[in-house]
Amino acid sequence: MLFGSAEADNIVVSVCRGWDSYIPLRERVELALKFVRGLEYLHRKGIVHLDVKPGNLLLGRPLTRDATTPHLKVADLGMAKWLHDVMAAEVLG
């Protein structure tokens, strides 16, 4: 799966690299954590995204006045599958 893999590390680095010109380092780290938490949420619900890339992360205004980090959503679940289907496909094939 994605967590704890080189693939996950590369996605986080790629996403953060795209933000380095206009978002300070501390906020980029917070956004990377939000990204990982979003994937974790999907996995807890039994969903595997299968198309994670910077273009599928939506940034919005902070949710509160005192927040500085933009709001982040993991988007485009068009290729997503149920975890048990993905696991079955790996076993069978």
Outline the secondary-structure elements.
Layout: H1 6-19, H2 25-44, E1 47-48, E2 57-60, E3 71-74, E4 81-82, H3 83-92
Antiparallel strand pairs: 1-4, 2-3
CATH homologous superfamily name? Transferase(Phosphotransferase) domain 1
Average residue pLDDT: 75
Secondary-structure arrangement, i.e. CATH architecture: Orthogonal Bundle
Structural category is alpha+beta
Note the gap between the termini. 15 Å
Contiguous runs where pLDDT drops below 50 for at least 5 residues: 1-5
Tell me the number of strands: 4
Principal-axes geometry comes out as: elongated
Q: Can you give the helix content as a percent range?
A: 40-55%
Could you please say which CATH topology applies here?
Transferase(Phosphotransferase), domain 1
Number of helices: 3
Write the element-wise H/E pattern from the N-terminal end onward: HHEEEEH
Strand content: 5-15%
Q: Give the strand order of the largest sheet, numbering strands 1, 2, ... along the chain.
A: 1-4
Main sheet: strands, sense, barrel? 2 strands, antiparallel
CATH class: Mainly Alpha
Q: Mind telling me the C-alpha Rg?
A: 14 Å
Number of domains: 1
